[in-house]
From TrEMBL:
It holds the Pfam family LRR_8. This is Disease resistance R13L4/SHOC-2-like LRR domain-containing protein. Keywords: Leucine-rich repeat, Repeat. SMART domains: LRR_BAC, LRR_TYP. Residues 106-186 form the Disease resistance R13L4/SHOC-2-like LRR domain. GO terms for cellular component: cytoplasm. It comes from Phytophthora nicotianae P1976. PROSITE patterns: LRR. The keyword Repeat applies. The keyword Repeat applies.
Length: 409
């Protein structure tokens, strides 16, 4: 019955195969097939869906391509290192799951699978994708996360129907210049790579709604980034962008924006914390209260984000917040400013009409605006690990449901 396949697994496979004539579907999971004897394939040519998952398969028969009627195939959780050359003959295949194997590469003829719409090859050992990868013209969903890809083939932007893409947890240093040609892309995860910058025309991704660029090495965004008008969810956490990108202000559809664990310290390029005509002769920076009073920050670059509901600026090196413009953030529910160097919270923050949660722990705050304690929507306020000298005596009588004052003497 084929060397390598256990007797129990062989019987399991036979029994399962016997009942598939009517359904065209075979599911075998959590056994020790190890290998598929060719004679089994001859009895399975009628299948439209085949799932051989966590079966400890180490290889597929050379004749695997004889399953010409297959539309859905899952080989997830096996020990495959390569695919047979005949694999490209599965011309009706629409969904393919090769996740959690040991694949190091895919043959070029793999890209002849013209009907393929959904491809899952995450958690393998892929170092590269075939040069012809862009020939998968029907592909709509691609998950390649947790491999060791260092670059993408130049043909990659030819995937004109791609709507969902996960390239997270690879070793990508750059993207193809024409990446913006993926005009149908709606959800894109590029987190935990080694990207230092994005292609110049990245903003051509006009359909993009969700984008994660977290934990890369980005130090700037391209000018075209401002053209991502459909973007509702953006993560820039864990990069190296020191100055708030002016492009972000143009993203008026943003609902969720995480910009934590960067080196954010400036709200405008070349910003100084004093008026030029009043600059100290010894280059010393004025204290934070003076900064706010002079309002040298000008307009608030966040004020145009009128749809924003969740904003995370924690774990940066911010010393000041813009003093004006907070009244435009009428939809904001949760604001995180934890672990910065803030000494003052503008009163406008306390007046945010829908604010439910404010995290301002681990800063250098000495006082809090009274507006925080009269905000009827605010349910949680975390101010622990600050330098608070006073708060209103009757703070507990106001509308804040949960007040964390740890380390307040």
């Amino acid at each position: 019955m084929g060397a390598g396949a256990s007797t129990k697994a062989s019987k399991e496979f036979d029994d399962a195969l016997n009942g598939t004539e009517a359904t065209g579907k075979l599911v075998v999971r959590n056994c020790e097939l190890l290998a598929l004897p060719p004679e089994w394939l001859q009895r399975a040519v009628h299948l439209k869906e085949l799932r051989l998952e966590h079966a400890k398969l180490k290889q597929l028969p050379a004749s695997f391509g004889c399953l010409l009627l297959l539309e859905r195939l899952s080989l997830s959780g096996n020990q495959l290192e390569t695919l047979p050359l005949s694999f490209h003959e599965l011309q009706r295949l629409e969904e393919l799951d090769l996740s959690c194997n040991a694949l190091r590469s895919l043959f070029g003829n793999f890209c002849n699978l013209g009907a393929l719409r959904r491809l899952f090859v995450h958690e393998n050992a892929l170092k590269k994708l075939p040069t012809e990868f862009g020939a998968l013209s029907s592909l709509q969903m691609l998950d390649v996360h947790n491999n060791v890809l260092k670059k993408l083939p130049k043909s990659f932007p030819c995937l004109a129907q791609l709507t969902r893409l996960d390239l997270s947890r690879n070793k990508l240093r750059k993207l193809p210049e024409a990446f913006g040609n993926l005009s149908a892309l709606r959800i894109c995860n590029l987190s935990r790579n080694m990207l230092r910058e994005l292609p110049e025309f990245f903003g051509m991704l006009g359909a993009l709604e969700v984008l994660s660029l977290s934990y890369n090495a980005l130090y700037k965004l391209p000018v075209s980034f401002a053209e991502l008008a459909s973007l509702t969810n953006l993560s820039l956490t864990g990069n190296r962008i020191e100055c708030f990108p002016v492009q972000i202000s143009a993203l008026k559809a943003l609902v969720t924006f995480t910009y934590a664990e960067n080196r954010l310290r400036l709200w405008k390029p070349g910003e100084k914390y004093f008026l030029e005509e009043e600059a100290p002769e010894n280059d010393q920076v004025l204290d934070t209260e003076a900064i706010v009073e002079m309002d040298t920050l000008g307009s608030n670059p966040l004020a145009t984000l009128v749809a924003i509901q969740y904003l995370d600026l924690s774990d940066n090196v911010l010393e000041v917040l813009p003093s004006r413009g907070w009244e435009h953030l009428e939809m904001l529910l949760h604001l995180k400013l934890t672990r910065n160097r803030l000494q003052i919270i503008p009163s406008g923050v306390g007046n945010l009409p829908k604010l439910q949660r404010l995290d301002i722990a681990a800063n250098k705050l000495k006082t809090l605006p009274n507006s925080l304690f009269s905000n009827k929507s605010l349910a949680y306020l975390d101010v622990q690990h600050n330098n608070l000298q006073e708060i209103p005596e009757n703070a507990g009588e106001f509308f804040v449901a949960s007040l964390n004052l740890k380390n307040y003497a």
